[in-house]
Amino acid sequence: MASANFSVNEATCVGCGLCLEACPGNMVGGDVLRLVDGRPVMVDQNKYGWQGCWRCQHCLAACPTGSISIFGLSAGQLSPKPDASIAEDLPKLVRFRRSCRAFKKDDVDEALIDELLDDVSAVPTGGNNQRLEFSVVTSREAMRRVYDAVFSDPAQPGLFETEADDLSALRIYDAPHLFIAHKELGGRNQNGDAVEVNLATAYFELLANARGLGTVISTYSAELLSQHPEALELLGIPENHSFMTVVGFGYPRIRYVRGIAKKRPVHKLS
User: 3-class SS at 91?
Assistant: First the structure.
């Protein structure tokens, strides 16, 4: 476990033990972190996993004095806790976001796309398994290559006719960019794996809307792309990986000015 690079600043550590309590490996019966002479120590483990270190960084996140470093990360390198305004802003964002079906042709700055990918990497996964992968089309020109890989084969023409400067046959409404979360599904946790893929999709969609981008989630596009190996190769998606949805995104032509209200059936047990 030397690769975890777990260390403690003994000058600032107060020996509170919160890191031990926050450790998932400890919670499920493992022996990962102990207090030795009032300071946390990581016990040598055979491997990362269920009763070992989950690589989750919970110990670092929970430390009230920022005394822990792990995996080359220290408290000063991590984002601080959101302020209280998030309790108002996040519900507003959920109500405000709309499916976008009218995109500008301008490419989104790749630096902004990279920031979104860095943010969505924090999406939860079962046991922090970290086996999710993301594929992203970062330009309209690259989207054209994906489009051609799907529709240039006469034997597999797709369901919609093509137009010279219109990518709408991919059913992401001419969005200039594409985000796909994918993962190998299999074994007894197959349903959980599928949930992780869809969670990443939902997180990315909200993060993109928070940055002022328009998004559209499409299951049809996922099915269409999955039937064309050349397109999957362009996107770097292995043959044994699965995805159920894709997100088309870009700058919206229509800017909404208010959220909406919907009613859903609610079943309460008190």
Answer: helix
Q: Residue 111 phi/psi, 5° resolution?
A: -65, -40
Tell me the CATH class for 2-77.
Answer: alpha beta
Distance CA 87, CA 258 (A): 18
pTM: 0.86
- pLDDT band at 161, cuts 50/70/90? very low
* Per-residue CA distances from 188 to 192, 244, 270 (Å): 9, 19, 33
| CATH number belonging to domain 86-250 | 3.40.109.10
Alpha helices in the chain (DSSP H): 18-22, 24-27, 58-62, 86-96, 110-120, 140-151, 190-210, 219-226, 229-235
Q: What pLDDT digit, counting tens, does each position of 217-228 carry?
A: 999 999 999 999
The domain limits of the chain are 2-77, 86-250
